[in-house]
Design a protein that fits this description.
There is one protein chain. This protein is an alpha/beta fold. It contains 12 helices and 9 strands. Helix 4 links the parallel strand 3 and strand 4.
Amino acid sequence: MSNYIATPSRTKEILNKYKFTFKKSLGQNFLVDVNILKNIVRHAGINKDSGAIEIGPGIGALTEQLAIHADKVVAFEIDQRLLPILKDTLGDYSNINLIHQDILEANVKEVIEENFAQNQPVHVVANLPYYITTPILMKLVRDKLPVSSITVMIQKEVAERMAAKPNTKSYGSLTIALQYYTSAEVVMIVPKTVFMPQPNVDSAILKLEMREKPPVHVEDEDFFFELVKSSFAQRRKTLQNNLKSYFKDKYDKDMITDILQQSGIDAKRRGESLSIEEFAHLANTFTKSLQK
């Protein structure tokens, strides 16, 4: 079956048939290159035993490739105008369940239980709109879903931030939050020329493998994330200055200096130089000191 959705001519034909106009507010950019879609499916590790969850199927280009290679696909679409188009373009596939809902409001755990077999490997695969990438990924990892991996096409710069290493410009609180729950790798760069309409920047395929448990032990998860966030509040400031200004209403300055000394981490370092292990150690030193 070579008349795939993801070709420029077929995409134009579908858009014209339904007089569909792109909504900027939904970040709609449709991929028109079948080989890239097949690569995404391959990188995601999809096979006939897999369940797949897609977010924002658009006119069904990636959904079609997932349906060909997976056992079953559940796709969440927020734009009502796309529902009749998807029913038409994906009509030949009986293994797709289309849900008209905002993924950020969905109970994804429940959807997985209802749609997939008990121990079936489930993978999230999506071409995510740029404006909402971070909230979606943070929801998926924080909900601790029974999924094996998340493979997403996102803005290249954001993908680099999520897979970054310490002491790089891209490394930040988002890096640590995602790497606490997953191991992150940029597996492919996607040029902007393969989209309709063409976005202003290139994309990348980011693969997140879910960890069975975090790479570090923290006494208080919420505080750990707050501490990380505060350490990057102003990138050019030292750890000590960022913590003092962020926590000024909670802890006095001497106490923060004292805890930094106890931790053995140089207060003059910047947040971007600390590894996830060092952040965990610092957060635990704080937590234990405050419990005294």
